[in-house]
Design a protein that fits this description.
The chain has 494 residues and is of the alpha+beta class. The protein has nine helices and 13 strands. The strands form five sheets. Strands 2-6-8-3 form a four-stranded mixed β-sheet, with helices on one face. A three-stranded antiparallel β-sheet has the order 10-11-13, covered by helices on one side. β4 and β5 form a beta hairpin.
Length: 494
């Protein structure tokens, strides 16, 4: 409702101003009034023109005062486009960081699951070994009990053997007495012979019993030796099992320690990224910190001095943005990563400067040197940068056509705007990069002010047909320079 009321008021006021202007012009024409030495007719035309200008000014003032979108469309379009491009780049960087963090968390979770699986397997193995040790201990107790019984039986047989031997000694004594008494009496001889035969038979039986007992004793001795050997073997097995058990316990403790360490590492990484997420990113990964031109063919010392001066400028710029200062008083340090088959090699700043200085000293001409951020760095962090070198050569001569395309003036202004922007950001950019142009700090190539683009679109619309749009270099452009260009519109075929 407010918009229709505003439009109605504008139409009414514009009509009143037009009416008053026309009336004033006619009166001035009738009275033949002259203004600043103009003819009366021209004076009347001047008043009519001023009236039309007042109508346009009044309309623009009222619209811009009453509507914020109109005010932004008139005066803030270029800032909005720049802010939109910046927000799109930030969103892309944040999405890359989110994907990387998700990947690292997945890898950590997978490692943790593998460690837990190993712990479960070690616990199962430990349980099996404990069961086996208990069974062996039971067997050992049974063997010790059997060995005790065998020892008591051997003692009993030894005692019987001693008794038998004492009886044998007694028989031998009796036999001697019988032989001594043999001469005393013949009657006693028969009697003694019979007794001697009896005792001889008994002696024979006793010797057989002694032999049997001796054989049994030898068998028991062998059995005792075998049991002792088995006991010793079981004892060695028990000691070995106890050693294995201790080793498994140490491995278990080591695995537990490793698991705790991994958990602490994960917590430390999570804490670091949590802290980083709470701070402002001052240099995204791949962001240019500074650039400069270094002359080649000089001594390595002078070349190294130029590179150090460039690093000092980068450090001063980083300190202004809030970077952390290291022990050497700088906020930016060089570092180079090179991947090889046997691993990744890291080279410090002095090594990088020495190698680059030697290379540039043996080269002619000049190079563009860019310091690029190795990763995302937040406020308060020390910046580590890589060094990029580009040959500083002539990319385009003054007046040279960089790229061209055909557009149709019958298209709408919005379609023409999209096609012109695509022409600048794709065709012109690709051609410039192919010829060796180094992108600017914000990675842009061939950007033009919006007013120049709008003027070019207006020229295309005036032709009302197909035209040839050319991007032309306005000056000699080298690799390190920004791409200074202008847009020219001509007929197709010219």
């Amino acid at each position: 409702m407010y918009s229709w009321l505003l439009i109605g008021m504008l139409l009414m006021v514009s009509g009143i101003i037009a009416f008053v202007g026309d009336l004033l012009g006619r009166k001035v024409g009738k009275k033949r009034i002259s203004f600043i030495r103009l003819r009366p007719r021209n004076t009347a035309i001047l008043f009519s023109v001023i009236t039309g200008i007042l109508i346009s000014l009044f309309t623009l003032l009222v619209l811009s005062r009453a509507s914020y979108p109109v005010r932004v469309a008139l005066f803030g379009v270029e800032n909005l486009l720049v802010e939109r491009d910046s927000l799109e780049r930030e969103i892309k960087e944040l999405r890359k960081t989110q994907a990387k963090l998700a990947k690292e968390v997945g890898e950590r979770n997978e490692q943790l699951a593998q460690m837990e699986k190993k712990v479960v397997e070690q616990n199962e193995r430990l349980s099996i070994l404990s069961t086996r040790i208990n069974n062996l201990m039971k067997e050992r107790n049974k063997l010790e009990s059997y060995l005790k019984k065998a020892s008591s039986e051997a003692k009993r047989l030894t005692q019987e053997l001693a008794n038998t031997r004492s009886q044998l000694a007694y028989v031998n004594g009796e036999y001697r007495k019988a032989l001594t008494s043999l001469e005393e009496s013949n009657k006693e001889l028969e009697k003694r012979k019979n007794e001697l035969a009896y005792y001889a038979q008994r002696l024979q039986n006793t010797q057989g019993e002694i032999q049997r007992l001796t054989n049994e004793l030898d068998f028991l001795e062998k059995t005792r030796n075998n049991l002792s050997q088995q006991v010793e073997k079981l004892e060695r097995d028990r000691i070995a099992l106890e050693a294995n058990l201790e080793q498994l316990k140490r491995q278990n403790e080591s695995l537990r320690g490793e698991l705790v360490r991994k958990e602490q590492e994960i917590l430390a990484v999570a804490s670091y990224y949590g802290e980083v997420l709470g701070r402002d990113v001052i240099y995204p990964k791949g962001k240019e910190i500074i650039r400069g031109i270094v002359e080649c063919g000089r001594s390595p010392e002078r070349t190294k001095l130029s590179l150090r001066s460039l690093i000092k400028q980068a450090s001063d710029e980083a300190i202004k943005r809030g970077a952390g200062i290291g022990a050497d008083g700088k906020a930016v340090s060089l570092m180079k990563f090179l991947e090889a088959r046997d691993g990744v090699y890291i080279f410090p700043e002095e090594t990088v400067l020495a190698g680059v200085s030697e290379k540039l000293s043996a080269t002619q001409g000049s190079v563009v040197v860019r310091l690029i951020s190795l990763r995302n760095f937040t406020r308060g962090e020390h910046i580590f940068a890589d060094l990029e070198l580009y040959k500083n050569s002539l990319v385009f001569d003054k007046g040279e056509i960089i790229a061209s395309t055909i557009l149709d003036g019958r298209n709408s202004e919005s379609e023409l705007l999209e096609k012109v922007l695509a022409f600048l950001r794709k065709d012109v950019r690709e051609k410039a990069l192919q010829r060796g142009l180094v992108p600017q700090e914000d990675e842009t190539v061939g950007e033009l002010p919006l007013k120049d683009i709008i003027s070019t679109i207006a020229t295309i619309k005036e032709n009302r047909g197909k035209v040839l749009l050319k991007a032309v270099a306005t000056q000699r452009i080298w690799s390190a320079h920004p791409l200074s260009l202008s847009l020219q519109v001509s007929e197709v075929g010219s």
